[in-house]
Design goal:
cell membrane; six-stranded mixed β-sheet; four-stranded antiparallel β-sheet; ATP-binding; 2 domains; ABC_transporter-like_CS; alpha/beta
Length: 314
């Protein structure tokens, strides 16, 4: 998907056998992770799977119990200062100050990066233009929309022009338009050679942006491949069924082996291997007195991959 640029180190992020426990709870059980320079790797997993813990270790915010990791060629245990100089981090919670203007926020971050007052003003102006915030530069960040605040937060993480960027669920809570705008910014950063590790709860986001997807569950890596290869791995088409009566949804899910319930869409989905499987499925629902108002065959999506992998590893 994206050209991997030649650098002094081939892999911008390399982790082997990372472990981490909090008390008696083991959060990471020996994960391996490789992010080639110039690529975007999406890290997916259900809540509590360990993905945020992995990011905290790789950004030196948390020490691992075991294993090794290098970021930008620097060991996260022994060379924390060098790692932090090489990275930018956009966390789930915005770090900008609501009482400062957009420009003042960026100048503050530039000052923390020791750029000097003249260079700080210049860099703030560059980033305001790049992230389409120039028109709102003089407004307090507290008046920004959710999408504008996330763009400002991302701009702040890019003040020092780091070669490696960690994005921890950057679009959570954004409306579809704001999410699409941020995707465009991320693609631009990737196109300029920035290496990105993205954690996200939106499977569509990973499908659109990632060169590779790493799925972790229970503190272990359960899949690591391109989005297209993972979807081929699922193989079978997906059958989506919507019962006439919403109350029948749980019963339909319990009746059909391997089914996944989507309460929001009011659907049951499952893999179908052949036309005869489809016929038997519909006959089973009919025999159980569950009328269906909508039937659709779909090609596999990353959502299907995610549900299958995390269910198999649970």
């Amino acid at each position: 998907m994206n050209v991997i640029h030649s650098r002094a180190f081939t892999d911008a992020i390399l982790a082997r056998g990372l472990t981490k426990s909090f008390g008696d709870t083991r959060v990471l059980a020996g994960i391996d992770l490789t992010v080639p320079t110039g690529s975007l790797v999406a890290l997916l997993g259900p809540n509590g799977s360990g993905k945020t813990t992995a990011v905290r270790i790789l950004t030196t915010l948390l020490a691992p119990d075991g294993g090794t990791a290098t970021v930008g060629g620097h060991d996260v245990r022994r060379e924390g200062v060098a790692v932090r100089r090489a990275i930018g981090l956009t966390s789930q919670q915005a770090t900008v100050d609501d009482l400062l203007t957009g420009r003042e926020n960026l100048e503050l971050f530039a000052g923390l990066c020791h750029l000097g007052s003249r260079r700080a003003r210049q860099r703030a102006g560059e980033l305001l233009e790049r992230f389409s915030l120039a028109d709102a530069a003089g407004r307090r960040a507290g008046t920004y929309s959710g999408g504008m605040r996330r763009r400002l937060d991302l701009a702040a993480s890019m003040v020092s022009a780091p070669p490696i960027l960690f994005l921890d669920e950057p679009t959570t809570g954004l409306d579809p338009r704001s999410r699409a705008e941020l995707w465009s910014v991320i693609r631009e950063l990737l196109g300029s050679g920035t290496t990105i590790l993205l954690t996200t709860q939106y499977l569509e986001e990973a499908d659109h942006l990632a060169d590779r997807v790493v799925v972790i569950n229970g503190g272990r890596v359960v899949a690591d491949d391109s989005p297209a290869a993972l979807k081929r791995q699922v193989g079978a088409e997906r059958l989506a069924l919507r019962p006439v009566r919403a109350a029948d949804l749980p019963r339909a899910g319990a009746l059909l082996a391997g089914a996944h319930l989507d309460a929001e869409a009011g659907e049951v989905t499952l893999a179908v291997q052949d036309p005869d499987h489809l016929r038997r499925t519909l006959e089973s629902l009919h025999a159980a007195g569950i009328p269906v108002e909508h039937v659709e065959l779909r090609t596999p999506t990353l959502d299907d991959v995610f549900f299958e992998l995390t269910a198999a590893a649970a």
